[in-house]
Amino acid sequence: MTVINAEATLLNWRKSRRSMGGTGECVEVAPLGGKILIRDSKHRVGPVLEYPADAWRNFVGKVKRDSLG
How far apart are CA 51 and CA 19, in angstroms? Predict the structure, then answer.
């Protein structure tokens, strides 16, 4: 599936609670039919990365585990 940037602006994008405050240096994620879309919060009409939801969950889980160890 190809995500058109115009479609991406209509999604429910969210940032991490641990994002870098007001500096705008973070990414946003949005679910879309079994996939997770990722974009740069400073360039909301720019490129969008698309990953399977399970791959994203595995990535986030590993980051959390590694940060605790």
Answer: 21
